[in-house]
C-alpha cells in the first residue's frame, strides 16, 4: 500500500525545502513549533468486515491520512479528479490501532488492522493490507497522526491560556506511497520499500547478542547445508538440526508460500505436508492445520499417515519472519480409519532478508528450517552410520527449502525486480491534497496554509466511520470491486552488518551522567525486592547482573559502516527485582508505599529507572526491574531527553535486547536475539515523577508477544534469560550506543510470585 509523509519548511523567497528525514525530531519535540510540517499518508487498503447478513466483505479503498483527518475513496483521486470521499473521520486522542494478524478473506490471506476506541471497544472497524510490512506502516501512520493530535491539544491549551486560540493547517512537501494500487496487484507483484533514511523501525538488524550455539555442517544436498547443534545435542535428549539455503525472493513472498494452503502451489515444493486444510484459526498469528500423505514414495512406510499441528508466526521489526510448528490435537480432527496419526518433529522456519546481488536487484532471503529429532530415531540413524538418513521424515522436512528455491527459480514472475520508492514532487502533493479535499483548490501549500476552518470539516471519529458496511456505498453500478487474486508480494529492506570488536561503549557513558556533581552515598543492599539475588549461575529462582559483553550495540561509525560493538558495562546498576501476581494488571508500582523506590535508600538515589513487564496470564504477572544511577543525569544528554521528553520520543527509542541463555531450543528461537523497539511493538505507559521514571510494558497489547510469553511460561523453570535495556542512538552526536542496564533471570518458579 502507499503511504505518504513529509514535512515543509519555509525558506527565503517563500520556497519550501524538502526534508528527507521522515522520523520525529530527536530533540524531545522542543523544536516542533519551528517545524510545522505535517505527515500525510496515502495508499490502497482493504475495508473488511462482516455485514448484517453475516457475509464477509472486502473492498479495495484508497485511504488518505493528513494531519488528524482521514478520508476513504473508491478510486485514487489522483487518477479520478471527480472522486468524492465515501467515508471520512478524524483521529482523536482515544483512537487505538492494533495488528490483528493474518486472516483469510475470499480465499486470500490479508493482514488486518483493528481501529477502535480505547473507551468503548465496541466502536471499531477493520482495514487490511496485502503484506505484514504494509500493515506495520499503516499502524505507524495512525500512531503518528494521534501523536500530532495530542501534541496540538497540548499546544492549543497553552496558547489559549496565553494569547487566544490560533490554528493552522501545516504544509506538506513530499509524498511517498505505501505499496501499489489493487489494479497493479492483479498484474504484477506488490512492492513495498522504505527510503534509506527512514525510521530505523523498518531497518534490518542482525542478532544483537553473541551466539553460543555450535552449529556444525555434516551434510550437503541440492545446494543446501544441513547442520547439527552440537551444544544442544549434549544438553538435551534429542538432536537439533537445521537446513540453510538462499532463495532469490523476498521474506514476504516466501512466508506466503510456506503459509499457503493452496494445494496446487504446495505440490510444487512440499513433498510431505502439501495436502493441508485449515482446522481452526485461533487468532491472526496462530492456526491449526490437518494434513495427510501417501507413503508410497518412502519404502519404510506402508500405510497412509496423517498429522495435526499448530502454526504460530511473527514478523520481526527487521522484516524477517519466524514460523513455529508443533504437533497438537483437536476435537474436530480425531483419528481416521485407515490412517496412522504421527507426530511431526517440532520445527521453526526462519526467513531473513539478505542484500541483493550486485547488478541484479532481485531480493534475496536466507531461509532456515530447524527441526528437533527425537532421541530414538536419531540413535538408530547414528548406529546405521547415517546411511538411511535420506529416508527419514526429518530429512524430508529439511530438504523442502530446495523445493522453495527451485519454484522461484522456475517462476521469475513471482519475484519482484527490485526496490521501488515513489516520491512525488511538491506539485503532485498539492494536486493530491486538493483532489482529496484536504486543502481548497488554488491554494499554495506553505508553512502557513489556510486555517483549519477552511479545510473539509469532519467531527466523526474514524473508527465510527468504518464500523459497518453502508449499503448505498456498495450499490453503485460503476463500482467494480477488484477481485482478490493470489499474487506474489515482496518487501525490500536495508541491511546491517554486525562485526564484533574488542571495544565497548564506555566513552559514551561518561557523557550521560553529571560526574561533576557530588556523589550520593548509597548502600545498594538496602534495595529489597521479592525475588532474591543469586550468587552462582546454577542457582534457581533468582536474578543476577550478567553485564553487557554479550550484547551488541551500534558503534560510533554505525551510520557509515553499520558496525556493532560489545555493549560493555551498563550505565545503571541493577539493585532489585520484583516478581508479583495479581488478578488485575498492575501499573505505577513505583508509587506504592512498599516499593523500594519509596524506601529511604530509594529517595536518596539521583535517578531510578523502573521497568515493569506486565505479563498476561491467569493470574497476571509482573516482572519489575529497578536500575539506579550513581550520579544525576546530565542536562541535554540522550538519557535526559528520554527521561524528561514526551512519550512519542520515548516510544521511538526505547529498545530491549533478549537472549535465552539456557532453555528449550524452540523457546530460544521464539524469543529471538534481535533488538526490539518496545514502544513500537507493544503499548508502553510512562510515569515520570520525583527521581524515577517507570515504564509499564503491556505485553498483552500484542497478540504476537502474548503467544511468545505463553510459550516461555510453560518452560519458565528451565529457562535462563538475559535482557538488556537501552536507548536507540541515531546520528553522530548520539553514537555510540550504550546499555542502560542488564538483568539475568535464573529459572524462576511461577508459584514463587508474591500476590499483590
TrEMBL record:
Pfam families: EDR2_C, START. InterPro entries: EDR2-like, EDR2_C, START-like_dom_sf, START_lipid-bd_dom. Coiled coil: none annotated. Residues 1-34 are annotated as: Disordered. SUPFAM superfamilies: Bet v1-like (SSF55961), PH domain-like (SSF50729). Gene3D superfamilies: 3.30.530.20. CDD domains: START. Residues 17-34 have a biased composition (Basic and acidic residues). PROSITE patterns: START. Residues 211-407 form the START domain. PANTHER family: ENHANCED DISEASE RESISTANCE PROTEIN (DUF1336) (PTHR12136:SF47), ENHANCED DISEASE RESISTANCE-RELATED (PTHR12136). This is START domain-containing protein. The lineage of its organism: Eukaryota, Viridiplantae, Streptophyta, Embryophyta, Bryophyta.
Amino acid at each position: 500500500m502507499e503511504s505518504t509523509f513529509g514535512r515543509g519548511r519555509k525558506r527565503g523567497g517563500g520556497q519550501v525545502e524538502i526534508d528527507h528525514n521522515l522520523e520525529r525530531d530527536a530533540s524531545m519535540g522542543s523544536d516542533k513549533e519551528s517545524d510545522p510540517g505535517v505527515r500525510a499518508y496515502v495508499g490502497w487498503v482493504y475495508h473488511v468486515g462482516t455485514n448484517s447478513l453475516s457475509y464477509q466483505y472486502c473492498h479495495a479503498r484508497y485511504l488518505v491520512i493528513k494531519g488528524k483527518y482521514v478520508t476513504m475513496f473508491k478510486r485514487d483521486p489522483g487518477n479520478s479528479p471527480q472522486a468524492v470521499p465515501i467515508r471520512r473521520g478524524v483521529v482523536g486522542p482515544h483512537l487505538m490501532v492494533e495488528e490483528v494478524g493474518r486472516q483469510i478473506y475470499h480465499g486470500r490471506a490479508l493482514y488486518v488492522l483493528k481501529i477502535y476506541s480505547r473507551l468503548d471497544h465496541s466502536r471499531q472497524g477493520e482495514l487490511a493490507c496485502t503484506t505484514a510490512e504494509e500493515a506495520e506502516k499503516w499502524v505507524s501512520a495512525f500512531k503518528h497522526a494521534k501523536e500530532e493530535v495530542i501534541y496540538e491539544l497540548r499546544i492549543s491549551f497553552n496558547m489559549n491560556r496565553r494569547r487566544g486560540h490560533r490554528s493552522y493547517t501545516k504544509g506538506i512537501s513530499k509524498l511517498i506511497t505505501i505499496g501499489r494500487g489493487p489494479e497493479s496487484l492483479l498484474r504484477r507483484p506488490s512492492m513495498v520499500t522504505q527510503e534509506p533514511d527512514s525510521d530505523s523501525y523498518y531497518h534490518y538488524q542482525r542478532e544483537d547478542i553473541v551466539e553460543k550455539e555450535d552449529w556444525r555442517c555434516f551434510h550437503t544436498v541440492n545446494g543446501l547445508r544441513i547442520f547439527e547443534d552440537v551444544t544442544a545435542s549434549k544438553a538435551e535428549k534429542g538432536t537439533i538440526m537445521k537446513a540453510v539455503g538462499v532463495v532469490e525472493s523476498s521474506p514476504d513472498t516466501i512466508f506466503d508460500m510456506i503459509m499457503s494452503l493452496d494445494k496446487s502451489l504446495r505440490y510444487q515444493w512440499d513433498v510431505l505436508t502439501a495436502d493441508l486444510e485449515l482446522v481452526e484459526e485461533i487468532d491472526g498469528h496462530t492456526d491449526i492445520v490437518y494434513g495427510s500423505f501417501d507413503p508410497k514414495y518412502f519404502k519404510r512406510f506402508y500405510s497412509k499417515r496423517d498429522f495435526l499441528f499448530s502454526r504460530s508466526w511473527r514478523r520481526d521489526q527487521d522484516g524477517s519472519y519466524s514460523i513455529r510448528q508443533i504437533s497438537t490435537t483437536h476435537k474436530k480432527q480425531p483419528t481416521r480409519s485407515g490412517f496412522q496419526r504421527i507426530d511431526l518433529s517440532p520445527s521453526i522456519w526462519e526467513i531473513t532478508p539478505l542484500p541483493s546481488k550486485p547488478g541484479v536487484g532481485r531480493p534475496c532471503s536466507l531461509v532456515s528450517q530447524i527441526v528437533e529429532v527425537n532421541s530414538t530415531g536419531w540413535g538408530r540413524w547414528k548406529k546405521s552410520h547415517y546411511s538411511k538418513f535420506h529416508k527419514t521424515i526429518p530429512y524430508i522436512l529439511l530438504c523442502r527449502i530446495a523445493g522453495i528455491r527451485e519454484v522461484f527459480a522456475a517462476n521469475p514472475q513471482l519475484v519482484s525486480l527490485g526496490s521501488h520508492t515513489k516520491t512525488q514532487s511538491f506539485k503532485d502533493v498539492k494536486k493530491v491534497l486538493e483532489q482529496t479535499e484536504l486543502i481548497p483548490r488554488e491554494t499554495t501549500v506553505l508553512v502557513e496554509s489556510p486555517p483549519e476552518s477552511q479545510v473539509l470539516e469532519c467531527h466523526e471519529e474514524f473508527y465510527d466511520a468504518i464500523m459497518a458496511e453502508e449499503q448505498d456505498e456498495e450499490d453503485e453500478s460503476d463500482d467494480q470491486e477488484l477481485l482478490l487474486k493470489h499474487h506474489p508480494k515482496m518487501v525490500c529492506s536495508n541491511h546491517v552488518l554486525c562485526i564484533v570488536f574488542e571495544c565497548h561503549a564506555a566513552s559514551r557513558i561518561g557523557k550521560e551522567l553529571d560526574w561533576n556533581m557530588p556523589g550520593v552515598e548509597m548502600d545498594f543492599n538496602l534495595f529489597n525486592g521479592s525475588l532474591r539475588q543469586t550468587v552462582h549461575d546454577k542457582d534457581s529462582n533468582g536474578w543476577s547482573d550478567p553485564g553487557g559483553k554479550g550484547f551488541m550495540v551500534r558503534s560510533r561509525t554505525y551510520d557509515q559502516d553499520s558496525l556493532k560493538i560489545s555493549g560493555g558495562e551498563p550505565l545503571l546498576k541493577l539493585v532489585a527485582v520484583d516478581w508479583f501476581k495479581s488478578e488485575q494488571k498492575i501499573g505505577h508500582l513505583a508509587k506504592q508505599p512498599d516499593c523500594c523506590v519509596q524506601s529511604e535508600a530509594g529517595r536518596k538515589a539521583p535517578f531510578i529507572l523502573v521497568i515493569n513487564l506486565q505479563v498476561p496470564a491467569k493470574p497476571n504477572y509482573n516482572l519489575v526491574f529497578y536500575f539506579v544511577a550513581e550520579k544525576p543525569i546530565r542536562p541535554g544528554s540522550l538519557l535526559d531527553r528520554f527521561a524528561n521528553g514526551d512519550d512519542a520520543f520515548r516510544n521511538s527509542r526505547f529498545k530491549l535486547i533478549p537472549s535465552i541463555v539456557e532453555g528449550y531450543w524452540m523457546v530460544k528461537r521464539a524469543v529471538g536475539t534481535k533488538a526490539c523497539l518496545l514502544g513500537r511493538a507493544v503499548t508502553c505507559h510512562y510515569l515520570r515523577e520525583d527521581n524515577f521514571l517507570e515504564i509499564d510494558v503491556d505485553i498483552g497489547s500484542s497478540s504476537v508477544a502474548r503467544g511468545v510469553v505463553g510459550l516461555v511460561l510453560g518452560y519458565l523453570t528451565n529457562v535462563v534469560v538475559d535482557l538488556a535495556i537501552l536507548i536507540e542512538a541515531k546520528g553522530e552526536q548520539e553514537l555510540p550506543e550504550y546499555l542502560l542496564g542488564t538483568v539475568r533471570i535464573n529459572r524462576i518458579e511461577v508459584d514463587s510470585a508474591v500476590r499483590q
